[in-house]
Amino acid sequence: MQQQQELQARPPHRRVKGRRARRAFHRLFLLSTAVFLTASAALSFPPLANGYADSLFGYVTILDTPDLASALRSAQSSGVVMAVHGWRHENFSQLNPEQARQLVTKSIQVFREAGIVPRAFVEPYDTVLSAGVAEAIESEGLPIALPYTRPYEFLNASYEYLYAWAWRNMTGFLDLRFVGSEAMIIQQQPRYVVLHVQDWNIYSKKLVSVFLGSTSRTDVVVRVDDINPNTPPSVINDMASLLKYKSVEELAFAVIPSAPLSDNHTIGGVGNSMILTGYWVFYVATAFFPACFLFMWRYTSSDDSDPEGSPHSLAGYESPKVSVIVPAYNEEKRIWECLESISRQDYRGAMEVIVVNDGSTDGTAAVASRYPVKLINHTTNRGKASALNSGVGESKGEILVFSDSDSRMEKSSVRLLVEYLQRNRDVGAVAGCLEVGGTDKSIMMYFQAIEYKIGQRVDKFLQGRSGSVLVCPGPLSAARRSLASEFPFNEHSVIEDADFTSRLLRAGMQVGMEPNAVVYTDVPRSIRAWAKQRKRWWAGFLELWKAQKPWSTRNSWMILNYVLGYVVSLLSLLLMVLLPYFAATYALPMIEIERGLLFALFPIVFFMALYAPFLAKEKKMLLLLPAYSTVYYLMKTVLLSYLYLRYLVRAKYSVKFGSRKIMVRW
Fold first, then answer.
1. Can you say how many angstroms the Cα of residue 652 is from the centroid of all Cα atoms in its chain?
2. Confidence (pTM)
3. Is pLDDT of 155 > 70?
4. Tell me, what DSSP letter sits at residue 363?
5. Are strands 266-267 and 270-271 parallel, antiparallel or unpaired?
């Protein structure tokens, strides 16, 4: 009690500054946490996903690479000895006999299906096998030595036979490794030469060719290890040509029949695996990071929707006169629901209802006249902004509430909006909370219902907490009459509500949100109608961004909407368009597509986890979250990118609003 009295005794400005400081620290902490989580996801997920993908479908066999199998068969026909080099390059000295037998059996089966006859087993690590393992391998018909060598004869020879070891990164014939090995092989005149296929290049080829062409020996055994499904067929053909030298008694290829698909192709010097990782980094930077920050901010915020740091009180609260203004154009079938919901409001103060019939050609005026409203008739369709200005001009209320004729308020909505403005004296306007109404239960309706719930309960709520709501929406919002008179609705704007709100913010007024003042509004039922509506909204935002650029580039919410809505959408579409090209560069594109789908699964699950608490009572919406996170996101990305491209090139563009066509001014 004493602490509470001390707090109340503090001057109001000190309490406000204290709250602002605590909330600024809170946001800084959340931002730091989001950065940490983003960095962790960017660095840790790709290795885990790649490892899991390899275990699921990353391994291939020589059967999956028919060109390689054909090259091996051709080499076998020319006299090359084919040997099993493990199943996946295992260390057989660490296996028991049954494990060894099973792996050799699988290898032999793949060889035979590929039309290749294995004639020996070459231990991948050249280690001595136990008697039991050796017996298990030989029981499958494979000797553990090449035809012209004795078991473990390579182990008894000097390891100097590995003349071209790790030459895959050699860049010139003056490399000391090449110069030293060339002198050594000529001097030693070895019988055994072991090469690794990954080290075969112009340098190793010259080294071996010079030796084989100059030696007087006729019993040289050349063994090529680590041939696997990733080996290019051209390398097999090139190495098989070593049989042309009379010095070669035996040329053997030790083949690993199964291996993970490797990144053999590069684009501009960047490997395909790095390209997939680049996609992932783009996602975590442009979607994961902002989502982490915003949702953590929302989850750790109280349900108090008043602007942070705003002094508010209901002391001396009165019930001012309210004017509810409803513009209408050809709404005879739905306006009665709007007016019925207004008539049921529980606001106890004086309230007038003004309906502006904006040149309707149906029975809108007749329906409206059945209710106790002040009816204003425009003889022609002059546009929604003009209708709103007419309503403002005829209004008598201290507070103006705006609603669309296809929307239905909950009975407490007007009262909650008025109370919000009365207790937050430095707030000029307040937005209500939009929910999707109507009886249509199409997938498009559910997509938009999810979008509205998340957008209103997270983005719009946080904008309200910062006193910077970007749009006081047409279905439900309220403003002080003095401001509505000072800042009339722009009759040349494509989105008059956002234009009006932005001018209030530019003038230094706060704009809040009352999440409990709920209104139900109809949404487009078809993709075509949805696209028509969104074109007007999103083209209008770009018009507003350009017209008020100095202010827009200083408002964090405007920047966030511009970057995430337009810049990121265009980049995302570009990356999606490039996906088929990147996939086609792989020898086995379907495997990389499966790997990419695994990477894409995480964002879907992540966003479902974020959205689920806001949809806990909506089972159908929960079931549609995967489709919303993919199909609906793609629809939005395509349309936003189209509009942004037109904006960037300043192409002429017009939208239809009512019976009028309005040219977008960008």
1. 31
2. 0.75
3. no
4. S
5. antiparallel
Q: Cα–Cα distance between 450 and 463 in angstroms, integer?
A: 19
Give the pLDDT confidence of 436-469 residue by residue, as tens digits. 997 778 999 999 999 999 999 999 999 999 999 9
The dotted CATH code for 306-524 is 3.90.550.10
In contact, 523 and 451? CB cutoff 8 Å: no
How far, CA to CA in Å, does 615 sit from each of 343, 514, 555?
Answer: 30, 19, 30
Rounded to an integer, what distance in angstroms lies between the CA atom of residue 113 and that of residue 76?
15
Question: Residue for token digits 């060894």?
Answer: 100
> What is the spatial distance between Cα 287 and Cα 118, in angstroms, rounded to a whole number?
52
Would you state the pLDDT for residue 573? 96
Name the class of domain 65-262: alpha beta
For the chain, give every domain's residue range. 19-59+271-300+526-666, 65-262, 306-524
| 162 closest CA partner among 141, 144, 145, 180 | 180
Inter-axis angle of helices 589-611 and 568-584, nearest 10: 150
- The C-alpha torsion from 187 through 188 and 193 to 195, rounded to 10°, is -50
Helices within 96-255 (DSSP H only): 97-113, 131-138, 153-156, 176-188, 202-214, 233-240
523 CB-near residues (< 8 Å, 6+ apart): 436, 438, 444, 445, 448, 449, 452, 530
User: What residues contact residue 454 under an 8 Å CB cut-off, 6+ apart?
Assistant: 611, 614
Provide the token pair at 446: 């559910």
Contact (Cβ atoms closer than 8 angstroms) between residue 464 and residue 519: no
The token pair at 324 is: 């509810």
